[in-house]
Design goal:
0% strand; 80% helix; single chain; mainly alpha; binds fe (ii) ion
Length: 167
């Protein structure tokens, strides 16, 4: 079943995003600038194509199951995650990070984590899609990976929605 294949791929992507975010929490806690920079790059590379195919195909496809309000909440989780990522890049660019700023960064990352597990749960609904629909999501994923825009590139050049303002 194609949906099983999708669930495996989807789970693995969320695992990688989860691990990068948890490592980023550790890096900010230690105020390890090199690690912070490298992990922020990793998170942007992983989430750019992932968010993109979710928004272009998976989330719209889920309107056959969920209410428009719930789909909107998934999209606004992304708005918030992009805003938080921007703020984290700002913080990481500072010459030196105060303990307070490091704690703030950790809080921002923790704020994004629930979407990773919530999003992974969506694959239980994908099991109810037609093979054709699942294939169209996998195709969009391929296109998204080939385009390879990271989170910031995609959010600024392609995405129509605005990121949330995160202080
Ligand atoms: Fe996701
Ligand atoms: Fe998502």
């Amino acid at each position: 079943m194609l949906a099983d294949q999708f669930s495996k791929i989807f789970r693995e992507e969320h695992r990688q995003i989860r691990d990068a975010l948890l490592d980023l929490i550790t890096a900010f806690s230690k105020r390890d600038r090199d690690q912070i920079q490298s992990l922020l790059g990793q998170v942007a590379t992983l989430t750019g194509p992932h968010f993109r195919y979710e928004e272009e195909t998976l989330y719209p496809a889920l309107t056959e199951i969920f209410s428009p309000e719930y789909i909107e909440s998934l999209l606004s989780d992304h708005d918030h995650a992009i805003g938080a990522a921007k703020k984290l890049v700002d913080l990481a660019g500072k010459g030196s990070l105060s303990e307070e700023e490091a704690n703030h960064a950790v809080d921002l990352i923790r704020g994004v984590l629930p979407h990773v597990s919530d999003c992974d749960g969506l694959s239980i609904m994908v099991e109810r899609f037609s093979e054709k629909k699942v294939q169209s999501i996998l195709d969009a994923r391929d296109r998204s990976n080939q385009a390879g825009l990271d989170l910031m590139q995609w959010a600024s050049k392609v995405r129509k929605r605005a990121a949330a303002a995160v202080a």
